[in-house]
Amino acid sequence: MNQWIIISGACAPDMVPFEGDPRFARIDCGPLRAWFRRDGRFVNDQLFAADSRGMALCDGVVLNLAELKEEYGVEDFMGVLRQSWEETKGVFFKKFAGPFCGAVYDRERDVLTTYANQTGDSFVFYYNAASCYMVSNDLNMIEEVMRKNGLPRSLDETAARYLLSFGYMVDERTLFQEIKRVLPGETVRFSASGGIERSYYHRFSYETRDVSFDDAIELVDQGFRRAVRRCFEKDREYGVKEYLSDLSGGLDSRMTAWVARDMGYGPFVFMNYCQSGSQELACASGAAAALGGQFLHKQLDDASFLFEVDRLVEMNYGLSLFCGITGGEQLLRSLNFQRFGLEHTGLQGDNIIGSYYTGKETFPEGQHDLKYSRSIICEASSIVLEEHGTFEDFANYARGFMGMMAPCLIRRHYTLTSSPYLDPEFFALCMSIPLEHRMKHKLYWAWLDAKYPEAGSLPATRSRAGQGDWTRAQIRNMKRKGAMALWKMGLRKQRPKPDPGHMNPIDEWYQTKPDLRAFLSRYEEETLPLLDRWPETQANARQMSASGAATDKLMALTLLAAVKRYFPPEP
Predict the structure, then answer these.
(1) How far is CA 33 from CA 9, 181, 191, 193, 196, in A?
(2) What distance lies between CA 57 and its chain's CA centroid?
(3) Is 418 a residue whose pLDDT tops 90?
(4) Alpha-carbon dihedral of residues 119, 191, 58, 38, nearest 10 degrees?
(5) Distances from the Cα of 321 to the Cα of 49, 325, 375, 424, 508, angstroms
(6) pTM of the model
(7) pLDDT band at residue 63 under the 50/70/90 scheme
(8) 3-state secondary structure of 260
(9) Sheet-wide strand order for 417-418
(10) Residue 571, preceding peptide bond in cis (omega within 30° of 0)
(11) Cα separation values, 406 from 401, 420, 425, Å
C-alpha cells in the first residue's frame, strides 16, 4: 500500500524517523512536511504534489474519475481537482466514489484538511497533542514518530471496551487516546492557531421516496449495473487482463461477478476461503462453475490464521477483531498482484439492498444487537448515539462502515477493494427505498428473480425471504445445540460433528484442537500482566476469556496483542 504522513512545523525536524530513508520521498509546503512511499499501483488516481498555493495528497482509487474528467472537460486528476475545488469551495472530493482518502493544505489560509471516503473502506488517522499534529493513512507511522521521540501515549479504555464488546470501534477512537480516526464522510481541519475542527462533508439520508415494489426492482438493477461498471472499468483503465473477485456461498459477491459477466467483463479469478466440506464451499464452487473462471479455494481446517494474532494486529492496529478476515490474508499473501487490479467484493450487499433492521430493534437499545459479545457491559457513547437518529443509521455507520469494513485495513496491504453496493449513489438509492420493501431480503430476492433468475436458482447459504424466522440454518443450529447439550450431560456417546454449513466454525476448532487451545492459553498467560496498569480493563479481558465462548477469547487476545505491540511496560 501507499504510505504517507504529514507533520506540522511545530514538530522539531529531528522528530521524524523517515528523514534520509530512501524508501520515502519528501514534500515541503510552508510549515508542513510530508513523507510518502508509493507502491506503483493505480497511480493515475492519485496525487502527491505541492506548489505555491498548497499541497494535495490524494490516495487510493476514484472509481468515477473518468466520469468527472468528462464532466469537467479535463484530461487528468489535477484538472478534476482544480475544477471541483471551484465548484465545491474546496471540498473537491465531495463527488468522488471509491476507496479514496487524503489531505489538502491551503497555504493562503494556513489550513490543512484531511478526509476519508463516505463508506469506511479508506483510513486516515491523526495525532494532535504536544503542540504538534500529524496526519497519516498508517497509524503505525504515527506510532513510530511517537515512540522514537518519547511522546506520551495512553491507552483509551473506552476503546478497549468497544473492542471487547462490539468487536470494533464505533466512533473516532483508536486504542491510543492521542490518535483518532477520520470517520467515514468526515473532514478534520487543522489551523495555524492549533485549533481543530471536525465536520461531515457527506452523510447518507434515509428519507424515502414513494416508489412501488416493481419500480424499486428497476431502480436497484439500473443503479447496481452503473456501480458495477465503475468498479470493473477501473481495472480496464490499468490494462488488467483478469478480474480478481471474492466468491462466497452467499449472494453478494456472486451478484457482483454475475452482473459484471453479464456486462461483458471477464475472465475471472475467484477467491474463496472456508472449511472444507462445508455448505459454504459447495455453494461457492457451484456458482464459480456457472460463472466460469478459475476458482482458488483455501481450506481453513487447520485454523492456522488464529495463530497469527501478532501479524494481523500489526496490520489492523487492534481496531477490530483480528480474525475478522479469517483466512483471507493468507490467501491474499499467496497471490501475485502484478496480475490483478482491484479485489472485487460484495461487501455490505445484504444490508444495503436489504437492511440491518428487522422490525424489532429499538434505538438506542438496539445497539446491543450489533455486538460480537455481551459478556461485558458496554454502550456507545451518548455523543455517538446523538449523531444517529435511527437504528438503521447507527447500524450502517457503526457495524457496517466501522466494523464490517475493518478487514480492508488488512486487505489494502495487497490491493484496494471495491464493492458496487458501497457506491455512494447506489447506497443512497437503496436507503431511499421504503424499509418494508427491503427488510428480510424481500427486494433482494425479487430483484434476482426478475433480472437474474439463474443466479437466484443456484444453491446459496442465504435462505429466501418469506420462509419466516426459522431458516434451514437456524433449524440445523438448534438441533446441533441440543445434541451438544446431551453430549455434555453424558446422554450422548459421541460429540456432534462440526456444522457442515459453517464456513469457519471457531468454537468447534477451539474445542477439538488441543494445539490451538494451548497456544491461546499460553498467549493469554504471557500478555495479561501487561494490563496490570489498567485494572478495570484487565478484569474485562479476564471476564471475556473466561466466558467459555471462543470468539470472546479471541476478542480478548486482540486487545492483549495490541497492548503488547503498542503499550509495552516502561523499562
Answers:
(1) 7, 20, 15, 17, 18
(2) 22
(3) yes
(4) -110
(5) 36, 9, 15, 26, 18
(6) 0.94
(7) very high
(8) helix
(9) 294-299, 268-274, 243-246, 343-344, 417-418
(10) no
(11) 8, 17, 22
**Residue 276 corresponds to which cell in the numbers above?**
472444507
Cis peptide before 364 (omega within 30 of 0): yes
C-alpha grid cell for residue 376? Answer: 461485558
What is the phi/psi pair of residue 132, to 5°? -150, 145
Chain-centre distance for alpha carbon 134: 23
User: DSSP assignment of 357-414, as one string?
Assistant: --S---TTGGGGGG-S--SS-----HHHHHT-SSHHHHHIIIIIIIIITTTHHHHTTT
Cα 100 to Cα 62: distance, rounded to the nearest angstrom: 6
Contact 10, 132 (CB under 8 A): yes
In angstroms, what CA-CA distances link 184 with 61, 95, 188? 16, 14, 11
- Position 285, amino acid: S
Instruction: Give me the residue label for grid cell 484442537.
Output: 513
Question: How many whole angstroms separate alpha carbon 62 and alpha carbon 77?
Answer: 10
121-141 pLDDT tens trace: 999 999 988 678 999 999 999
Is it the case that residue 66 has pLDDT exceeding 60?
yes
| CA 514/CA 93 separation, integer angstroms | 51
**What's 495's DSSP letter?**
P
Cell of 120: 469506511
Query: Span 290-316, mean pLDDT?
Result: 97
pLDDT band at 469; cut points 50, 70, 90? very low
For the segment 16-25, what is each residue's pLDDT rounded down to a tens digit?
778 788 889 9
One-letter amino acid at 250 equals G
